[in-house]
């Protein structure tokens, strides 16, 4: 399927009528087009998270709403957009995710519209678990392992033993959940999977750096 569907256009128009440019941008980023969310919509949303009057809960809730769609394309793009906001948006976005009592409920998600839908559903379930774990880790630690300062005077190197013993298992679980995504090179031709993979890869590099700092700290105690 290529191009925006009538459903996409109607949804965008509904948000436009309610006066929510931000919700409309979320809708535009999560269309039925089998391609990664468009850069201009992601940039608009990232910029919005840095404005003082932005309604972060509304942005996140609209993304959660899009993740309940029956189409794997819309759901996958909602997850990619959410992850993009966690990585590049204001930290208030992931703080809000961490404060929610419920996050992505995709453990049983299956798109039955075709064999491709079944295949993509597996990645969606794994990706949803990772984003939930990322938010849970923030709730546990009150910071994002991928965002904290690294190196000799970084957060994990200067953390107390007590907090380190609490934090390392949380960090290990986040890494393990990320690695479960387990995408193969041939599947990276899919633009949506590729966008998710790039965000996950960047997270993994930073998570390993935090883990390395934590181990160095533990060994130096």
Describe this structure in words.
- Keywords: Cell membrane, Membrane, Phosphoprotein.
- This is Synaptosome associated protein 91b.
- Pfam families: ANTH.
- One of its GO terms (cellular component) is clathrin-coated vesicle.
- Belongs to the PICALM/SNAP91 family.
- The protein has 221 residues and is mainly α.
- The protein has a single domain, classed as Alpha Horseshoe (Serine Threonine Protein Phosphatase 5, Tetratricopeptide repeat).
- The protein is built from 10 helices and no strands.
- Helix 1 packs antiparallel against helix 2 and helix 4 runs antiparallel to helix 5.
- The longest helix has 30 residues.
- The relative contact order is 0.11.
- The mean pLDDT is 91.
What are the main properties of this structure?
Serine Threonine Protein Phosphatase 5, Tetratricopeptide repeat; 10 helices; mainly alpha; single chain; 221 residues; globular
Number of strands: 0
In terms of per-residue confidence, which ranges show pLDDT below 50 for 5 or more consecutive residues?
A: none
- CATH third-tier fold name: Serine Threonine Protein Phosphatase 5, Tetratricopeptide repeat
The backbone outline, from C-alpha atoms, is globular
Tell me the count of domains.
1
| Distance between the amino and carboxyl termini | 57 Å
Put simply, the count of helices is 10
CATH architecture descriptor: Alpha Horseshoe
- What share of the residues lie within helices? 55-70%
Strand content: under 5%
What's the CATH class label?
Mainly Alpha
Mean pLDDT: 91
Order of helices and strands: HHHHHHHHHH
CA-based gyration radius = 18 Å
* Sheet with the most strands, sense and barrel status: none
Judged by helices, strands and strand pairing, the structural class is mainly alpha
